[in-house]
Recover the amino acids of this structure.
């Protein structure tokens, strides 16, 4: 008899933290994880998911998690990213933003075209094949559910969700190793420090309670005001991801502080950014249902393998070269594989993992979150819709 264990949102975070710590410890002790810069939440999350898969397969126990706080940590993470969007940095990264948006949209076209071509060779219906294209790869789980539920064909939702799960795992495993390979092959060096910290007056300081509390309160207030902004945007017909309002408010506060020469504790915000990202990903990854991948046997597995090869080669030879073939481009490449096969938080985790070993890239942490969170969904859904209409 199989037992079902239910965990509330606090217990869920507790288990996520346990396996995050396991991931951190294993990365320090296992050279493979260090060599390929595998993110800590990915290590711990996949280990738990494998354990959960085995226990379910043996009909012993199944875990159900309340992932309410996953959303909270995601919003906090994107809000902290908003504080990095200073006008001076946006001005410097303007052309790079446009270039990265271009290559991200180009990858979407490649993903769907490859899905259709391989699907035709394998005699798979085009709409089924598209559920292994940019819908789950660039779109992730959210887009997979939204798109598949609006196509009157049985089984598409299961395929799309399973493909998104596959992409999330693989994108997190191949992104950092690619960046490391590029950095070492071309002897690339970072010219940045973690944060320009104009607001910190270039002072070196220890973390203290007052500054950390100030950072935490600023984040919470930005999140709160941002949700109100989301409400009014929805009222006028603009349905945006839940983190857009808070991220926008954070960017406004950051730039007002620059103009008024008011201090914002950026070092502390950056620490909270890292904490919230790790917790968000850890909760998301322990909640993965690996048994969904069993739906991808046979021809569908071939389609997904083709997607992995396509994304890897595209990022290696197109994204890296168009973005400048430098250190920033290598970090952006790790990020592109993260959200080109999963989601923007995976992209940031990929980049952070590489940054921890080789140094920081301000440009990458500006360009990838903005394109991944603000623009790519619009283009992806528009392109997917055109493909679906053509093949329906």
């Amino acid at each position: 008899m199989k037992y079902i264990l239910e965990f509330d949102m606090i217990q869920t975070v507790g288990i996520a933290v346990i396996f995050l710590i396991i991931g951190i410890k294993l990365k320090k002790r296992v050279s493979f994880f260090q060599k390929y810069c595998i993110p800590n939440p990915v290590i711990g999350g996949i280990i738990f998911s494998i354990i959960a898969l085995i226990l379910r397969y043996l009909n012993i126990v199944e875990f159900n998690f309340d992932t309410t706080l996953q959303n909270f940590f995601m919003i906090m993470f994107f809000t902290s990213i908003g504080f990095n969007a200073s006008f001076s940095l946006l001005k410097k990264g303007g052309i790079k933003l446009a270039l990265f948006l271009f290559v991200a949209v180009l990858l979407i076209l490649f993903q769907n075209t490859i899905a259709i071509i391989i699907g035709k060779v394998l005699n798979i219906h085009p709409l089924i094949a598209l559920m292994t294209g940019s819908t789950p790869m660039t779109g992730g789980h959210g887009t997979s559910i939204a798109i598949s539920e609006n196509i009157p064909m049985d089984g598409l939702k299961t395929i799309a969700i399973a493909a998104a799960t596959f992409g999330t795992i693989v994108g997190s495993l191949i992104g950092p190793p690619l960046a490391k390979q590029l950095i070492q092959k071309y002897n690339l060096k970072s010219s940045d420090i973690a944060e320009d910290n104009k607001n910190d007056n270039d002072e070196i300081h220890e973390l203290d309670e007052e500054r950390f509390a100030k950072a935490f309160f600023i984040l919470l207030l930005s999140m709160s005001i941002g949700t109100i902004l989301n409400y009014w945007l929805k009222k006028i017909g603009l349905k945006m991801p839940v983190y857009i309002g808070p991220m926008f408010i954070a960017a406004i506060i950051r730039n007002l502080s620059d103009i008024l020469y008011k201090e914002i504790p950026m070092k502390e915000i950056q620490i909270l950014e890292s904490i919230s990202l790790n917790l968000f990903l850890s909760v998301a990854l322990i909640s993965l249902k690996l048994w969904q991948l069993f739906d991808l046997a046979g021809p569908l597995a071939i389609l997904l393998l083709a997607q992995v090869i396509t994304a890897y080669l595209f990022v290696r030879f197109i994204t890296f070269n168009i973005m400048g073939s430098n250190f920033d481009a290598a970090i952006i490449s790790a990020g592109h594989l993260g959200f080109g096969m999963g989601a923007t938080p995976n992209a940031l985790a990929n980049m952070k993992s590489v940054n921890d070993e080789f140094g920081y890239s301000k440009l990458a942490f500006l360009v990838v979150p903005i394109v991944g969170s603000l623009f790519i969904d619009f283009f992806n859904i528009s392109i997917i819709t055109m493909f679906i209409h053509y093949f329906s």
Summary: The radius of gyration is 21 Å. DSSP finds 16 helices and two strands in the chain. The longest helix spans residues 156-185. Residues 68-195+211-391 form one domain.
